[in-house]
Amino acid sequence: MLVTYLEASRDLCETNSILFGAAVAVCRIIGAKVPMAGRATTQSSAIPAWRKRIEDRIAKARALIGRLTSFRSGNNRPRIMRTVRMAFAGTNISLSQPDITQKLTERIDDLKQKIAAWGKRIRRFSERSRRFNQNRLFQSDHKRLYKSLEQPKVCGAGQGPDQADIIAFWRGLWSEPVNHSEGPWMEVVASQDASVTPMDPITITPEDVAEAVRRAPN
Hints:
By secondary structure, the chain is an all-alpha fold. Helices cover 64% and strands 0% of the residues. The chain has nine helices and no strands. The protein has helices at residues 2-7, 12-30, 49-72, 78-87, 100-140, 142-149, 163-174, 184-192, 206-215. The protein is flat.
C-alpha cells in the first residue's frame, strides 16, 4: 500500500508527507509516543513553584521596605506616596497622623521579619535537598560524592617567602632558650599532687600486642 502512494508521489514534499504519515501509523500500532507539533516538550524546572512564589514575595517586600524607608527619610514624590498609601491600605493609619514615623518603623520591622522567615524556609529546603542528593549519590557512586566534597585548591599568587627568613623565624621560636614564668599556681598544684602515689610502670610485650590484635575485629 505504501508503494502505491510513493509511486504516485509527484515531488519531494509529498513524499515526505507520505513517509511521515506511515511513521505515525506504525507508532500508533505499536503504542509508541509521538511528540506532536505545538506541544511543549521542554523539561520542567527543578525549582518548585512554592519557592518561586516565596522569592517573588521577598523581592516585593524588599522593594516596599526601600519605598517606606525613602518616605521616612522625607521623600514625598507621588510614586513613593502612592506606594506608602497602598502599604497601609485597609488600616486606620493616616499619613498625616503624628506617629506616622513609628508606624512606618513597625511596618518595616514586620516586613523584615517576614523576609527572614521566608528565607529560613528556603534555606531549610535547600539544606534538605542537598543532604538528600548527597545520600543518593553516596549509594550510587562514592567516588563522585567524595570528589564533589573536595574544596578547590587555592594557590597564592606571587613569590614565596625566602628560605633563610623561614629558617630564622622558626629557629627564633624553638632554638632560643626562654625562661617561662608559670606563676604561683604551679607550686600550688605541685604541692597538692605530692601526696599522690605514682602508678606502677607498665611493660607492654610483643605477646600482649599480638593477643590484643588477635581479639580485635577486622
